[in-house]
Amino acid sequence: MQPMDKDVLTTSEAAKLLGISVRTAQLLIEGGTLTSWKTPGGHRRVYRTEVEALIARTRPAAVLESSLVIVVCSPDRRAIYEAMLAAVPECTVAIHEDAHTAAFVIGSRLPAAVIVDLDGDHSDRLAFLRQIDGNPAFGSIAVFASASADVMASGDLAALRRVTVTSPDQLAAALHRLLRDKEAPHDIIVDGAPFPLASNEGRRLTALKRSGLVDTAPEDAFDRLTWLASRSLGTPIALLTMLTNDRQWFKSRVGLKMTETPRSWSFCNHTILQKGVFAVSDLAHEPPFDTNPAVAGAPHFRFYAGAPVTDPDGFAVGALCVIDYEPRRLDAEQEKTLLALAALASDEIRLRATDRQLRWALDSLDRQHERS
């Protein structure tokens, strides 16, 4: 497979990504909305970047395309928000103690929500809140002011037009309502086995398709990370998994011949529902993992630890995990290593997305020059 092949789509693949029929996709191609060309065999092909650009142009404003939540709070309140938002599996959280840093981050990539804590001396954070409230460029962001009863009664928030004022203990529920899919089950059954899902699973699957990673060739950038995970943590198996609606597919693998499993076998179903390392020291003695086919039968896995891998918009598209045939535990330093390697995998996925956007922009400029 050539390096660029994963960015080239058939008509049916383009239709699937757009969520339309193949015939409708054909009409878009024939009408010139999607630029295409024919292979020597007479088959139409389009660039993935063309399809993503069309999605961006036609996407309804109400569709939430991010699961990133940015929190602005004082240093002594950081632990409170880390604990609070750990219970919201639908989001990835970035906490900033400086409002100027948060403003820069928001300007570079719009999050789903911003939470501004108004506990204690909050003059800078209140000014930041007013800046967001008055800037139309941030109109798609849900903004929450987390305030005590005294701050709520002070009148400081009265002039804010689209800020939701809430107490800290109501924030998790408010975010859950914001981020969940309109209709999403909490559990689905594949091959007779249930596994848990976040309530924004539909959007997560869309983000995974948008990444263009599934069913692509091995790549050194990811293979180095699984090799490092296996060597540094002393496990015979390390995997970079991608969780589709019915499969657990391995983008990279060390110590395992199979390239995928049914999703119902995946321990990573639990990993992508939390923020840190998810680990099971002895799978054979921990329900429901004791009945997993890979535990109860060959290859008889006994230990698992994984950390979520996210895309640029904060969706957990998969996990970096290590597996052993013997029960064991990771110490604090080893958990930190696994989290760092998962973060590097996430960074690599973000770089791919930025590269696709840049190439699309350059292609668009080239087409404009050709027309002029």
From TrEMBL:
Location of the GAF domain: 217-359
Keyword check for Protein transport: no
Q: Does the keyword DNA-binding apply?
A: yes
**Annotated InterPro entries:** DNA-bd_dom_put_sf (IPR009061), GAF (IPR003018), GAF-like_dom_sf (IPR029016), HTH_17 (IPR041657), SinI_DNA-bd (IPR010093)
Keyword set for this entry? Answer: DNA-binding
Query: Cross-referenced Gene3D superfamilies, in alphabetical order?
Result: 1.10.1660.10, 3.30.450.40
Domain of life, source organism = Bacteria
Question: What is a single molecular function from GO for this protein?
Answer: DNA binding
Annotated Pfam families: GAF, HTH_17
Report what the protein is called. Answer: Excisionase family DNA-binding protein
